[in-house]
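Supplementary notes for students who missed Thursday's class. We covered one full example, reproduced here. Read the sequence, then the structure, then the short commentary at the end.
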Amino acid sequence: MIKRLAASVREYKRDSILTPVYVIIESILEIFIPTLMAFLIDNGIYRKNMSYVFLMGLALLVCALASLLTGILAGRSAAAASAGFARNLRHDMFYNVQKFSFSNIDKFSTSSIITRLTTDVTNVQNAYQMLVRLGVRAPVMMIFALIFSFRIDASLSLIFVLVIPVLGAGLWLIISHVHPVFMRVFRTYDKLNSIVQENLHGIRVVKSYTREEFEEKKFTGVSRSIYQDFIRAEKRLAFNMPLMQVCLYTSMLLLSWFGAKEIIASGNNAVTGLSTGELTSLITYSLQILMSLMMFSMVLVMITISRASAQRIVEIMAEESDLKDPADPVRTVKDGSIRFENVTFSYSAKAEKPVLSGIDISIKSGETVGIIGGTGTSKSSLVQLIPRLYDAAGGRVAVGGVDVKAYDLEVLRNQVAMVLQKNVLFSGTIRENLRWGNEHATDEEIKKACRLAQAEGFIREFPDQYDTYIEQGGSNVSGGQRQRLCIARALLKHPKILILDDSTSAVDTATDSLIRQAFRDEIPDTTKIIIAQRVSSVQDADKIIVLDDGRINAVGTHDELLKTCEIYREVYESQTKGGVLSE
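Structure (token representation):
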């Protein structure tokens, strides 16, 4: 885990190395200050030597200013290193997510990925900043303070040796009890983000059903769970400060008690015993040792919090797409022919029953194929195997006579345009959205695609026409307008295969008919697969596939299926009520 995270430091290695260097210099300068104070007291103030007092005072001032300067430099480089590290982590996670297949994405919820990119990265950033600064400062200061303490008086310094294990054991107990709580907190954060995302996405439904109070209760429940877990963790962490203070004050009391006895016994003679200045230094060193332990405990607490976050980040970074290009991929799609050979598919290897089974059908290049069936008959699952959004569990899917697994993924998907059930438009102008299909498309190509998709009419009614701004998700256009813009975007790819997954459901039958007519006239060589609930959307297709429970029930033309397929006939009669199907 550490090795994978460290790979994201990259160009910020310099700042990550300079920070500990500055911290070490800063700590050593601070360690010299108590010793200089001891010299000032014993050789200056005690002997009333003012020139020595001024000399030591100047030395103390230089040490303090140098320590301040290196502290500032350490803080600056630590901030740059941690912020840069966080930036690279987000970059690496986001870019890896872009490589995910649909099955990879199914393993992580959207809300979980968002939490990992935001809250979890921030936690790791804070921990990294503390690690390169306080994580270095604490052990350096403690080690040097112990060395200087033993140099002054080894017997009194044994007090530290007794106190440090007690403090360390206490900190370990606290942290071991806190870590599981934070693991649970971050899982609950995923749930909280999911509720917020779902609520905002479906805000119109919430308001239309006046379910605001229900949503508030749901949000409050999860929020309270996070609050209670944080309180539980903070209650345990609260023992950190009392434990530290007990150790600190115990050390000071013992030093003062035994130190005072030594000073009296030696007559304040540093040669034969302990002097007042040395006792002052020892007390200061005790503060530095215990403060370094305090800093170390803070680092451990932050690492405890961020450890759960780091694990979640690594999960995203370590996830590899299960769809990979072959060693020598095919880079040309010959035509739009499609062949399913005894295809079986499941979304999970643990599924008791496959989503699709025994799929065996051929589609010629340039054909128009309709797919119809009830809800949950796996119509969308079938067409998602064509551009290799998922891989078939068994059998073979071929495009242009070549197994889809043999293609370069980018080449294959550039020749297969899909308009999904959920039509997504991004924030930006209509022109910018359409150029998702082809970033180099000319204005004339854009207008032609919109004419084919029957979108040009309503676009011209907008004051800014193709420069009209589309809100996130296309919330400022109707469902039918959104569908037609998505169809136009797909057409701009000039694909060999065009898949419409129930993507004309929000347009009227007359417009639907015009779109299909435009396809027949303008793109006859493109293979067109139309998934629909309405018979009118597929009745003119060269062949119609009727799916039932993940299997092909029947294949034929409209007239043939009316005679031979009971499922198709029932759908037709339910939509026409026994009459003639109108366009």
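Commentary. The chain has two domains: 2-318, 330-415+541-583. The two ends are 60 Å apart (CA to CA). If anything here is unclear, bring it to office hours.
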